[in-house]
Amino acid sequence: MSEDPYLQVAAPPSPAGEGGAVEPAGEQPPPPEQSQSEKIFGTIKSVAMQAMMMYFVMSFFKGKPQEQKAGSETGVTAPMKSPATNLFNDGMSFDLYVYLSEQEEFGEFQVPESLVWKKEGLSYGDWTMGEAADSVFEHSTQFAISAAAQNNGSVYMHAFIVKGGKSPDPSAGKGFFSKKWTGYKTQRLNKFMKKSYKTTANLLTGQTEQSLEDQEKAKIGKVEVISHWHPNITINLVFDHTAWVPGQVPPPLDEFVEFTPSLQQYKPIMWLNDYWNLNRDYMPINSTTPVLNITLTFSPLSLFKWQMYSAQQMKNRFNPLAGMMGEEEDDQDQDSVKEAFLETNIYLLVLTFVISIVHSVFEFLAFKNDIQFWKNKKSVEGLSVRSVFFNVFQNLIVMLYVFDNDTNTVIKISCAVGLCIELWKVTKVQDVSFDFENKFLGIFPRIKLDDKKDYKDSGTKEFDRMAFRYLGMAFFPLAFCYCIYSVIYNEHKSWYSFVLGSCYGFLLTFGFIMMTPQLFINYKLKSVAHLPWRMMTYKALNTFIDDIFAFVIKMPTMYRLGCFRDDIVFFIFLYQKYIYVEDKTRVNEFGYSGEMIEDNGNADNAGAIEKETSAVGDLAVEDKSEDAKKDD
């Protein structure tokens, strides 16, 4: 390999098959247990936190440079490195050269077709260039690619900025080529995306919409990596004069700040920006695309915006959970955030960020109070025990569905933790014991579940049974109809996947009706004192936030309507709390009733009065003794 005549080349993404990450092209199943608004909340917070961390870290290193002293063998300390200045002064003229090539190491200066854009007479630091006075220039063109590039090859862009009148070609001679006054960046423009094939078919007819070729690939579990193309790329040049100190530029910014050999100056920072290229806009490169379209845009960039872009592009390198989250789903979430930035008003975006933080706080408080409620619960009177068991069933279906589909590790862990919490709640509403005499398979002791005494004596058990009986009259017909629809019109991998998919889809659609048994028990008992109102309030506030985002974020109409189902149920709970008067004989979630608190209060008051009377009597006796002493 020939020696590169330029000091720094931005490392392009590794192509598929060389250890590089690949992106999804085909349709992937949506991550379960996460609504679209929740994904937006998490991604927006992640984007903001990473950007702020990058900015503060860079500001810290820039504002407080550490003294670097190199000790020699003689013990003499070398002086500290001085800050470097920008090689380009404001107003300096420079030229832009953009080449396209299928070679990563560029040397095709003598090939006229490789030069796709040459922009001369640009002025560094001038934000008012061009007809629109915004210093933004565009150039659209077409270029032909070889058969190798059509067959999962690569296309690279090589961008040069040189001092006005200079040339990026080393063969131009010393009078025209200057290594010092040449800035260079390269990047692979095509993107490798992964496409997986799955054997899905209608379980009744055996028919599928997939082609015979795709079916054969699915049988052998083949996963293809296909090159894709996006027609837009932006070349940003950072207009900034920050005094960077060599060796003290924080990562990952140090990869883009290129110092001259004397370390007294650094070249302008050039950034090849494809951040706003959405995955949905990429098209596959194959034999039907011998000519590709491309639109090149040159635009200046401020230091702060460059920090934001670099923080997002380098986030996976500093994120220990990046591998667990899955790059495919992370890119889908990033696209959702980008769409929100592109299509939403800036004030709504600020409101989105603030509310997403509040949403997270309420979510944590709801979880904390839910655990605290069940941990301190001494009585199950008035609570629907069957709903607890149904929640175990629901979480089990969700977890099995998650493992049956290709979902990231974080969601799998969260589903498993949720199932464990629901199983723990069973121990709070039932008397759990082990029967070592009648073992299962002669090895494992059987688990015995017995109703708690107050659950049976208070009549809650009978009301709970009646509520589920009425619920079953509506629940099972709906579930049956949903399964019939799914098996007729949808494709599935197997009958097992069909059962899981149908149960999961039904629970997402009609799961809210499982809150109705508690409404029935409240109606029969004419009380709501047994409910965890703190937890319910936090969850209701989060539901209202979901309602707001349902109209801010782009999503299906049915999902928007579905956001109001939980609101209706919660308003019914509020109505019950309003109409049912306070019953001081019923215990609350902490095991205390109003009469118990009043009795304790009366006892405390009586004790206080007795102590006060005793103190007054002691004082009177003391006064009397003093008078007796005076008489003596």
Furnish the topology, listing elements before pairings.
Blueprint: E1 23-24, H1 36-63, E2 85-86, E3 93-101, E4 115-123, E5 137-144, H2 147-150, E6 156-163, E7 182-188, E8 191-196, H3 212-219, E9 223-229, E10 232-238, E11 265-266, E12 270-273, E13 283-284, E14 291-301, H4 303-313, H5 315-318, H6 322-325, H7 327-343, H8 346-375, H9 385-404, H10 409-429, E15 430-440, E16 444-451, H11 453-457, H12 460-489, H13 495-510, H14 516-525, H15 533-552, H16 557-562, H17 565-579, H18 594-631
Parallel strand pairs: 1-8, 2-11, 10-14
Antiparallel strand pairs: 3-4, 3-6, 5-14, 6-7, 8-9, 9-13, 10-12, 15-16
Helix pairs in contact: 1-4, 1-7, 1-8, 8-15, 9-10, 9-13, 12-13, 12-14, 14-17
Describe this structure in words.
The protein is α+β, with helices and mostly antiparallel strands. Helices cover 45% and strands 16% of the residues. Helix 8 (346-375) packs antiparallel against helix 15 and helix 12 (460-489) crosses helix 13 (495-510). Residues 1-36, 61-78, 320-326 and 619-630 have low confidence and may be disordered.
